[in-house]
Amino acid sequence: MSERTFGLALPLHAPLDELVETARTAEALGYRHLWATDDRLQRDVFVVLAAIALATRELQLGPGVTNPFSRRPGLIATAIATLDELSGGRAVLGLGAGGTNHRALGVRREAPVAALAETVALIRALLAGEEVTTKGRVVQAESARLDFTPTRSSIPLYVGARAPRMLELAGELADGVIVGNVASPDGWSYAYERIAAGAARAARGVDDVVLNAWVYCSIAEDSAAALAAIRPMVATSLATSRSALATLGLTLPSQYVERMDERGWSLERDAVAYAGEVVPDETLRWFGLAGTAGECAAALHELLARFPQISQVAIVPAAPAGGTVPDVVRSFMRDVVPLATHPQEVGVQ
Predict the structure, then answer these.
(1) Among residues 101, 151, 106, which one has the least CA distance to residue 127?
(2) Residues 193, 298: contact at Cβ < 8 Å?
């Protein structure tokens, strides 16, 4: 197994200068990769990544994740190739089929597995300098070719997934898989099986796929405050992945369902915050690391002990009341990672 690395997944809520400064802090702390979310109608992910590329030297950078419904696959290829050129070959591409901006854009999410497979094929061909004509189920292109030569003809491509068919597709086609917001070893057990099944279809092993554990994270001396910080995030994930949760061993909380029914399953912030108020603590911990540094370290240690194949861990930081996102970024690397990865060396039995 390759060296395990840690990364940061930034929601683009803060002003641009704050996002850039958080990225600088992450690089100085030893984070190796930085993902920027592509959700709602927030700051443009590729503009933010460009600003971060100019302010850092070593971080691998990419959208985590963008999708072929709100962005045309051909334009995703041009954007990631441009970011790779700007960053000196540090770009990585995270693709998914979800998204929280489809309603606002008037976009319909249809045939997501086919859409991702066709998108992966098109982007790889364009980066390799090919001219592409395709009439897929979702993705079409006619005599498409990049008008410039990319810095690299192949950029690492990750697929973000929780649903079984998407996990299998990631195992079959992607360089890496982002298992989105699953901090539970039991949830990971099912995800790993599906990734392995997809890899087998392509006559390769799971070791050929980089496994990234992507988890919400909030750290505070008061566990309740940390759990409260990730509630809206978890409430959103419950809504966007509800069709896949049963296969992952998770049941939608009944009170949560009642509240989302009241709001028409809207993904607006006030709706998911309202529903998130009644999500049980154990469900919150299924999706993320939240609590004291010691509690977060114990949960992460259990996950990594059960699945040593995980070579990347990326946190989505959420500031507890009275704290900041940079506080969480610092505490995770300084207080949680040493306890989780080398507990005996730091005196923890």
Answers:
(1) 151
(2) no
> Would residue 256 count as lying in a domain?
no
Helix (H, G, I), strand (E, B) or coil at 42: coil
**Domain extent for 211:** 5-218+291-341
Token pair recorded at residue 224: 């309740």
Counting Cβ atoms within 10 Å, is residue 95 exposed (0-12), middle (13-18) or buried (19+)?
buried
Residue 171 resides in a domain: yes
Per-residue pLDDT of 20-76, as tens digits, reads 999 999 999 999 999 999 988 899 999 999 999 999 999 999 999 999 999 999 999
Q: Count of alpha carbons within 13 Å of 223, Cβ hemisphere only? A: 11
Q: Mean per-residue pLDDT for 122-132?
A: 98
Flag whether 266 is in a domain: no
322's CB contacts (< 8 A; 6+ apart) are 225
Cα separation of 285 and 288, whole Å?
5
As a whole number, mean pLDDT of residues 117-138 equals: 97
| Total number of domains constituting the chain | 1
Global confidence as pTM = 0.92
CA angle 236, 177, 98 (to 5 degrees): 35
Q: Which CATH number is 105's domain given?
A: 3.20.20.30
Residue 302 falls within a domain, yes or no? yes
DSSP state of 320: P
Reading the block at residue 186, the tokens are 């039991």
Q: Which pLDDT score is estimated for 349?
A: 44
Tell me how far apart the alpha carbons of residues 26 and 331 are, in angstroms, rounded to a whole number. 11
Write out the H or E segment, with its range, that includes residue 313: strand 310-317
Cα gap 141→122, rounded to integer Å: 8
Q: pLDDT per residue over 84-108, tens digit each?
A: 999 999 999 999 987 666 677 777 7
CA distance 154 to 41: 29
Question: What backbone phi and psi angles, to 5 degrees, belong to 52?
Answer: -70, -40
